User: Which sequence fits this backbone?
């Protein structure tokens, strides 16, 4: 049976976002990506920072690790919002 306290769910979602980023990068390299890669990197980093914070909290990591992941998410989200207001 699946143990939800093990951190399995955020780890799987994190792996899927890494796969998504790699696929978008590969499509960008061959010129087939409908998205501009530099514009979506902050969005992916913001989500991944939250996933890493969730994973750290579930694995009972020291609080500075969870705080650093949340700080990464905050900074990436700020960059994402700022870039949207520029356009």
Assistant:
């Amino acid at each position: 049976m699946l143990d939800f306290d093990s951190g399995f769910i955020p780890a799987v979602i994190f792996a899927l976002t890494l796969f998504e980023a790699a696929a978008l990068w590969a499509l960008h390299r061959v010129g087939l990506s409908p998205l501009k890669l530099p514009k979506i990197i902050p969005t992916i980093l913001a989500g991944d920072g939250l996933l890493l914070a969730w994973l750290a909290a579930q694995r009972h990591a020291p609080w500075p690790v969870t705080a650093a992941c949340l700080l990464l998410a905050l900074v990436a989200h700020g960059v994402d919002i700022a870039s949207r207001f520029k356009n």
Notes: DSSP finds three helices and no strands in the chain. The mean pLDDT is 90.
